[in-house]
Amino acid sequence: MYFSQQSLQDSRLFSYKWEDSNQDSQSLQFVLKNNVIQEMPSTGAAYRPQLAQRAIKSGLLTYAKTVDPRIAKIDIKQQGAQINISVTASKSGLAQEITEKLSHLQKQIQQDYLESNFYLTFKNHYGQDTIKHDHGRYAQLSIEGAKVIAQTIKQSIENPSDFRGFVNFTLSWIQSIPYNTLEDRVSSNGAGFASPRELIISNRGDCDSKSTLMASIIKAYAPNAEVRMIFLPRHALLGIKMKPGKEDKTIKIGKREFVLLEPTGPALYELGKIAPSSNNAIRNRQYTTEVM
Fold first, then answer.
1. How far apart are CA 19 and CA 288, in angstroms?
2. Domain coordinates of the chain in residue numbers?
3. What does the pLDDT look like over 103-124, one tens digit per residue?
4. What fold, for 2-46+123-291?
5. pTM value > 0.85
6. DSSP characters for 29-70?
7. What's 44-55 look like in SS3?
8. Going edge to edge, which strands form the sheet with 227-232?
């Protein structure tokens, strides 16, 4: 792929050239205003349990200061990624009441911390719990930039109202962007992920990053489209709720059928075609899904 970007007075010009699955030359060029780029969320750091617990401890200590030390003693200690709370009180039942209040507050502070840093809790198909980037929120908050890209792509294809044609052109472009290997989600807590903003600027991304950008552009083109990210053990792809073609690979989520697509590359799969490894993982039900 050929890629260049040029700074203009109040915007940035992005230019691409690549070959699609038919080995036909394709090109794409769009301009993003600087304020649009700045409003797209940048990539947050990988989740660090000790930093999160530090924020939680600070919030708990703030509450503890509001409790009269003459009626209750509250001891809050952080040990690595764990917080230990001890409450002693002079009045019967008060220690339990304060402990329950602190437990509820701890959960609320943690949730607020996750949301403010674009994280969410994640359970993979093995049932393992971890924290990952909120890919759906990144896609949603990148929509203004995605609208510009979607409009340019519509002007680049023969029939702007052809959803499948739009998706296939966009797929071949994103698949041709250089690939970064995905770190293990459970052990890395999101290290290596690039938000749509960072992916566009750096012209590089892993499967989670490319799928997030692809989802954002699809939603910009068709706001009512139902899109799901499909998480495999070390991979990610997308599903779109639509009428499948005869040869399309699909997945059922609940009672609804989603056509699968592989934004990752470098293999150039059209809509409804996926890698054999992805097909095997899905057939063996080694996946979880997220609304985009």
1. 32
2. 2-46+123-291, 49-116
3. 999 999 999 999 999 999 888 7
4. C8orf32 fold (3.10.620)
5. yes
6. EEEEEHHHHHHSPPPPPPP-HHHHHHHHHHHHHHHHTTS-TT
7. CCCCCHHHHHHH
8. 250-253, 256-261, 235-241, 227-232, 288-291
